């Protein structure tokens, strides 16, 4: 195949990257990976592989929801191909309805007979482009066709847990209580349970995960940490559990704002004691968006999804890699007050965010193409979650379809999976496994940034074990060199090993409607040598090794 010649054309940088060797790749120095089978780092919660859906642009309307009368294959109005693909990667949890949309959303608008539900102006359209308000369409004027009932059905069809974001900015606490009652009260037990039953859902939805506010430092109310702590107490002091182990998630800082976390937790844990043991999560959002190379305007600094240079490749990956530092810093700050670490981190928005221009349709606000660069960014982030599985309990990628770091892109009757989908498919084997400490010994990658030498790690990844099966995932960020790698599993007899790799012959490669398989995984040869594996990791690649040990 021509792909494996791996010639990367980078005319913008004035250089071409020729990858040579056994199959035409340039060689780097040897690397070593040690998987320490006797050093567990905790169980990898399946919930680290969650997804995020918001009423913004083409996510719900044109993405998830096509309507029951649509000619597009659907199940109760939900796009069938999306359901099938999500089940393939075992999506464990889905966050909805936002995002900033949630801070203006009244859940009562989305129940009852669909024909009688009110239409509302979508938060994002007013914020994004008010001059479009003369147009008609579900992305501009929210029809509430997709509400709590439809979302619950979506979760059931995809076998995922629902994670609901509560409107703390513009609805009172009683509305939160009533939403919990509508979702979780036993069949026929209350008026709200009867309303749910009349819509065809007599049995409760059993929603355990509730985000109490969203980005409360910004669109969720512009609160100070102290103000938000007071509101959080008020909203969560008594919530009916209906026999469920509710998980209440606080709205954390803007990126790595440690001061916000200190001030919130100090307010919560000092003075009048806060004793709600359902407070188990602290939300953190981190977008890789500032490449600091496009000028003073924020939009320019975001860079482009398709037109980028090698330096932008590495800078984007470096931005994503900051997730690990954020996790460590936030965990340390929380631990000064929550000494037992009952509250875990919930990274419920993450991924690259580029300036607009590559969206499939003008209505797809913040839609962007997904290249092999984004696949590596997603993979290294999932590896970070795996390595920090004792600190992070939930993560949801922003967003599932037609927005930001999407797994799928769709418009009308056309649909395809992005390279990110394949990353989640490769990494699904980690779900529920025991994370293993893994040591990477490899030289850094060097590149030029603004006339100066810069560095990024040469290989990184994560490993897990389920019984006799060890899964290792590795990211090689080097644009031009393959890395010959020895992998040791101390204290184990290797019976068999298989490899899968996701890469492409152009760093800008991406899937499209016409070429939906331009970037897809392929088999990778792995040599077994007693207690060691030998493998050549291609440039710009995500690799998964499945090792059977005795």
Which keywords apply here?
single chain, 550 residues, alpha/beta, Immunoglobulin-like, TIM Barrel, 2 domains, 11-stranded mixed beta sheet, 8-stranded parallel β-barrel, 11 helices, 29 strands, 23% helix, 29% strand, disordered N terminus
* Overall radius of gyration: 23 Å
Helix content: 10-25%
Top CATH class of the largest domain? Alpha Beta
Low-pLDDT runs of 5+ residues are: 1-25
CATH topology of the largest domain: TIM Barrel
Tally the helices: what do you get?
A: 11
How many separate structural domains?
A: 2
Class by SSE composition = alpha/beta
Q: Which of globular, elongated, flat, extended, rod-shaped describes the shape?
A: globular
Largest sheet entry:
11 strands, mixed
Q: Which whole number gives the mean pLDDT?
A: 91
Q: In terms of quaternary structure, what is this?
A: single chain
Estimated share of beta-strand residues: 25-35%
